[in-house]
Amino acid sequence: EDLKVGDLVASSGSHSEYVIVSEEGAIPIDQTMDLRQAAAFNMVAIALQGVRKAQIELGEPVLVIGLGMVGNLALQLSRLSGGLPVGATDTEPSRLELAKACGADFTFNAREEDLARKLKDLTVGGPAVVFESTGHPAPVNDAFQYAGWRGRVVLLASTRGETEKVNFYRDVHKKGLTILGAH
Q1: Which of 45, 80, 85, 113 is exposed most, by the fewest CB atoms within 10 A?
Q2: Cα–Cα distance between 115 and 29 in angstroms, integer?
Q3: What is the spatial distance between Cα 6 and Cα 85, in angstroms, rounded to a whole number?
């Protein structure tokens, strides 16, 4: 009733070229908005939901694992939420460069040795918040390892598959970690 043929809308439907949604699921967008920006709204919403669930306090160190669109947005939103320092890790050099341009205080190639020690030095004991945003199961263990004592690990991506060899006593209970599913 409120929409007509030709109106520009966005939806949180599947990642597809065409999606059928109810009128309630069609979000009107400004007719002058750049459609490339409008198409990213759902990715921004996912990153924002994760950052809100993390409840970042002013001055808490943050690490983002995986710098695809959602990870890079989580990095920027963490900074805006008071995270300091905010860093990132990925295996793709161009993503690390983009993260620096978007305000990362530090970046590391995920293939570097002894990343956990470097993070503890940079963040005084480890990040308070770690976002796992790769969508792969193996880096979930890395997130547990990198997080500081009583830290929060936010599983931001739609991780598929099984994360193997998790020692919940050593990796979670002993450190007092909180694990948040944010998708």
Answers
A1: 113
A2: 43
A3: 45
pLDDT band at 73 (very low <50, low <70, confident <90, very high): very high
Q: How confident is the model at residue 182 (pLDDT cuts 50, 70, 90)?
A: confident
Q: Is 172 helix (H, G, I), strand (E, B) or coil?
A: helix
pLDDT average, residue stretch 154-158: 91
DSSP state of 105: S
Q: What does the pLDDT average to over 52-78?
A: 97
Strands 27-28 and 9-10, sheet pairing:
antiparallel
Residues ≥6 apart with Cβ < 8 Å to 59:
82, 84
Residues paired with 62 in a beta bridge: 86, 129
Cis previous bond, 85, omega within 30: yes
